[in-house]
Target: Sodium:alanine symporter
Amino acid sequence: MESLIQWVNNQVWGWPMLGLLLLTGAFLTVGLRFISIYKIPYAFKQLFRKRGANTDDGDVSPFAALMTALSSTIGTGNIAGVAAAIAIGGPGAVFWMWVTAVLGTATKFSEGVLAVRYREIDSNGNRVGGPMYYIKNGLGSKWMPLALLFSFFGMFASWGTGNSIQANSVADVLNAEYNLSPWITAVFLAGGAAAVILGGIKRIGSVASKVVPFMAGAYILLGLLVVIMNISAVPGAFSTIFKGAFGLQEAGTGISIGLMVLAMQKGVARGIFSNEAGQGSAPIAHAAAQNNDPVNQGTIAMLGTVIDTLFVCTITALVILTSGVVSPECLAGPENYQQLMTGMQPAGCDTGAPLTSSAFAAQYGEMGRHLIPIALTIFAFTTILGWSYYGERCAAFMFSEKAILPYRIIYIAVVFFSAAAIALEDQIGNIVNLFWLMADTLTGLMAAPNLIALIFLSPVVFKLTRDYFDRDKEATDGLIDQDDLPRGS
Model:
């Protein structure tokens, strides 16, 4: 069974899916006239713009919606995932992460536009939306099976990738670093999650608005200090990134296609895992925003990719590459290419969270050793919060709003038992690994229905965007007459 699921997982997250995600991002980038790139400063301005009374339909502020989306993407992947990409794919993987992020801004923009354009009001009076709603309302009732398929994948992915893996990782790192009993971690983690999740999107958005900016800002600041302390190594770090991206070895050895492909594969995969552009999770959060303007919320939505990958992931990469903790023999090269292709690091070379931890410890000493476990715990906890709302909306779409409370109770129970499973690892280790594989597969499968909808509904996105930005005065002021735009709620 494990071999079968591993094979399916490799197909789901193989080149066909990664290529489809990239090509969709490229198609949307060109179709949007590259506004998802050169309008990034404008998007930051809109994020903090004071809004009038005509834009207050929704449950959380546009800022809170973005923070909720970021709470699910800024997680262990930004710390452990980036390090693993560098360790296996070499520094060149960072360049391909950037490429994925740049193209992902158009995908996230389009998701945000469609989320608000086709959102609904549920029986509790809340604004709800996401891929399942823009599939149903945008493509028509005959596409309903695709919407239900997305919801099915999304609900189970929330229990897996967004919940059990995060809780299990927190219990594991706290047990390894501080010998803290997994049962204690399970109690506090489940209790903290319950206190927030049972309050619904408004409480999740409120907590995310406070925790996410603090945790991301603190991590970026501490990382920047490391880079500044090693400023002389920065030019060399960028040189290795660009050389590795295109398989350029030392002078005289030419281009290695195999190493370039390896860097591309690991960088693209890590970029997509990190920012979730095209996966369809973030638009569920943006649909709840107090903003009636689809395009305006779309500009805010695309900032998720910028902050997550171009800011946080880049800081992690530069800390690792400038701290001197990676020896030359541990970097991708002709001599270890075949081994790296199997996903294995050379003996004595760190990867994942231990590599990032070593990089911070090299500068901050004992404090640096504690930084990564603490950051992982906070990042994972906010991921649990964000994904709870995604899964909740998927469950409600399939079974009505009556499913929300039972879903929340099950979700909290999964948090508890996933953390506690570390104490029973010897007895249930194989079962946990199997569950993780299934969860990762389902998370990947979420992308397929969403990408289909993005491609077929792209003319709607293009038209709304042209109408918005072609009005010089309104675009400059950031205000659009709501009567001139198709209503999404």
Notes: Strands lie at 120-121, 127-128. The longest strand covers residues 120-121.
